Amino acid sequence: MTSLESAAVVDAPSKVVYSYIGQRIKERRKLLRLNQKQLAVLMGFSYQQIQKYESGINQLSVSKLLHFARFLNVPPAYFYEGIKLDERVGKFIETDIIQRKRTMSLKLLFVEDNPNDVVLFTKALSSCPEQVETHIIHDPETVMDFLQNHETKYGKPKPDVIILDLSLPKISGMQLLKFIKKNPQTIEIPVIILTNSISKKEMMEAYRLGAAGFIQKSVDLDEYRESMRTTVKYWTNVVALPSM
């Protein structure tokens, strides 16, 4: 096969893949009842960029694909589900970053002001077989400072995932979520909301702000432990994160 023929083989599958991914982005956006302009604002892209990604005109790097996955609250594999391609295409699609296993411990920031919930969380997390480094902060103001100065001031790595209680003193969990998702230094960190109860309106607002999901609080240790196991397994074994 000549170099020209080889380039043509690569180019054709690439167009099919980018077009399919763009369609999946569009479907998910509509499911969340977001228009292109709203999604553009949330992600820090231009309206034209969203249009080109959805139409398959612009190529999506792995980092941008992960960016879409976080804001649309889906695993990266979602964008490839159901795709049917020629067998040769697999040779030219770089998917190892999405498929590979985590080699480093999951760095988890837990934001909770209730001591009883902290104890429950710690006990639940201790049953997880995966390696997890947990840092617990009780007040939102310290969280904001930590996220901007985690290494220089606190000697801690940047968290891979944040579990955030909505009921916090002074600054609400929703306000803190907004801060995290508008800050260029932290916008890519998945934020999981921990709550006793939440209205549908609040839930939709949290998703629009960039929440990655919700965990229901429970006083039943076994039930809470299972929720934590599932959450940790998902973010260590299923989802690809930049620190892998």
Note the main attributes of this structure.
alpha/beta; globular; 244 residues; 2 domains; Rossmann fold; 434 Repressor (Amino-terminal Domain)
Number of strands: 5
Low-confidence stretches: 1-13, 86-99
How many distinct domains?
Answer: 2
CATH superfamily of the largest domain: Response regulator
Quaternary organisation = single chain
Strand order of the largest sheet: 2-1-3-4-5
Largest sheet: 5 strands, parallel
Topology pattern, helix = H, strand = E? HHHHHEHEHEHEHEH
Shape: globular
Number of helices: 10
The CATH architecture of the largest domain: 3-Layer(aba) Sandwich
- Mean of the pLDDT scores? 81
Q: CATH topology of the largest domain, which one?
A: Rossmann fold
Radius of gyration: 20 Å
* Helical residues, percent: 40-55%
Q: Cα distance, first to last residue?
A: 36 Å
Layout of SSEs?
Blueprint: H1 3-31, H2 36-43, H3 47-55, H4 62-71, H5 96-99, E1 106-111, H6 115-126, E2 132-137, H7 140-149, E3 161-165, H8 173-182, E4 191-195, H9 200-209, E5 211-216, H10 221-238
Parallel strand pairs: 1-2, 1-3, 3-4, 4-5
Description:
Strand 4 (about 190-195), helix 9 (about 200-210) and strand 5 form a beta-alpha-beta unit. The protein folds into two domains: about 5-100, 434 Repressor (Amino-terminal Domain); about 105-240, Rossmann fold (3-Layer(aba) Sandwich), CATH 3.40.50. Mean pLDDT is about 80; it is low at about 1-15 and about 85-100. It has about 240 residues and is an alpha/beta fold. Helix 1 (about 5-30) packs across helix 3 (about 45-55) and helix 7 runs parallel beside helix 8. The chain is globular, with a radius of gyration of 20 Å. Helix content is about 50%, strand content about 10%. Strands 2-1-3-4-5 form a five-stranded parallel beta sheet.
